[in-house]
């Protein structure tokens, strides 16, 4: 039993030493092998590898996947009109030179993010400072993103990093000028609304005047036609009357006298002062008179 225990201890030590000489590089990682603090080699292919046990050699892994920087706070950038804009951006990047990246940042991803954010801020300032608000917000937004991408990508080459994409998520006015901008927009919309109302009122008056003119014209034409029809009717009636009465003039005279009597003595209180021998009373005296 006393002889077996040292063998077990020795086996454990050997197993520990052996396990420290084996390491795995995954598909998503780079492996950097250090020999006494100096970079010995860089491994970019996945697999099982061997090395000397510490402290002779050790391994550091770096992420080779696509990484992103999504700014937590919007950058305050001034346009050529001296107006402050708040711009949110995000960046897609990856490590392409593990050796240079490690030498620059010591494997500290946070330091790399801060350096890239500073470069992005400088590139945004360079592109936005020479443009107006309208250019930044709508007209040349894509151009600005392309300029920032080119600028930052060129500066990031010396860091062992490749910038894949740069996007501007949100652009808005700083709080101190938003209110004045909204007031100006409101006054402009009010001016346009008043102008449209004036145009509408003028058009309505024009339409109303034209409608009144057409109405008067139609009424006048209708009145003229009515008068013409009435004249034709009166003429036809007169012709019929003349034709009818012309057949017996005595009867016509008698009939007209009866109508005159009816009109003159329509009420019991009617009173007339006239000569009894007047022609008016000839049919009262003699119904057969001619």
UniProtKB/TrEMBL annotation:
Keyword field contains Ribonucleoprotein: no
Pfam families referenced in this protein's UniProt entry, alphabetically: Band_7 (PF01145)
Record-linked SUPFAM superfamilies: Band 7/SPFH domain
Domain Band intervals: 20-185
Source organism superkingdom: Bacteria
A GO BP annotation: proteolysis
Annotated Gene Ontology cellular component terms: membrane
Any one Gene Ontology molecular-function term assigned to this protein's record: peptidase activity
Topology term for the membrane: Single-pass membrane protein
Compartments, as annotated in UniProt: Membrane
UniProt keywords, alphabetically: Hydrolase, Membrane, Protease, Transmembrane, Transmembrane helix
SMART domains: PHB (SM00244)
NCBIfam families membership: hflC
Family according to the record: Belongs to the band 7/mec-2 family. HflC subfamily.
Function in brief: HflC and HflK could regulate a protease.
Protein name, as recorded: Protein HflC
